[in-house]
Amino acid sequence: MFTGLPCPSPLEAIFVDTDQGPKNIPVVKSSATCEQQLLELKESLVNFSVGDYVLKSRVDEKVGNKLLVTWIGPFVITRADSHSFRVRKLISGKESTVHASRLKFYADKSLNVNEELLEHVASQGIVLKVDGIRDHRWNDRIKDYELLMHWHDLGAIEDSWEPMKSVRKDVRLMVENYEKSDQ
């Protein structure tokens, strides 16, 4: 329908020209300023200092576009940079640089690092190299074979029974060679 009135500008929703001046522009500017201040605050909210204990995220798996992480540690912070930290493993003493977003506070420098804590840290995230397959057996409960795995640099007392299905995923060639030699 034509009214004969001039076509309104799309900017009239933002800019209202009255005697009082524009009303919405200062609101938009103050909102942008507020967002900028929040961003700066978020970036500066790193609450770790040298000597603190932190947990580090480890990506275990990617499902779709989501990362599945596990928090491991604690690690002790040895150096703090602007956006990253230098952390040291409690057991091996190895150091690595980690971005602040991958760390979570665990305890301050007064943490009592006792034998129980060190044992817990030593047991997490271990990747063992297979030295060989010693034996096999049928497991009725899981309806699959288990393989007696001998681990590199560990004694025979630490050999363990592992499901054949999971071992085959990790060391397929070794399992196939064991199957051939067992026949």
UniProtKB/TrEMBL annotation:
Q: Which residues form the Chromo domain?
A: 128-183
Query: Which Gene3D superfamilies does this one have?
Result: 2.40.50.40
InterPro entries, alphabetized: Chromo-like_dom_sf, Chromo/chromo_shadow_dom
Identify the CDD domains for this entry.
CD_CSD
Q: Please give the name of this protein.
A: Chromo domain-containing protein
Q: Which organism is it from?
A: Phytophthora nicotianae P1569
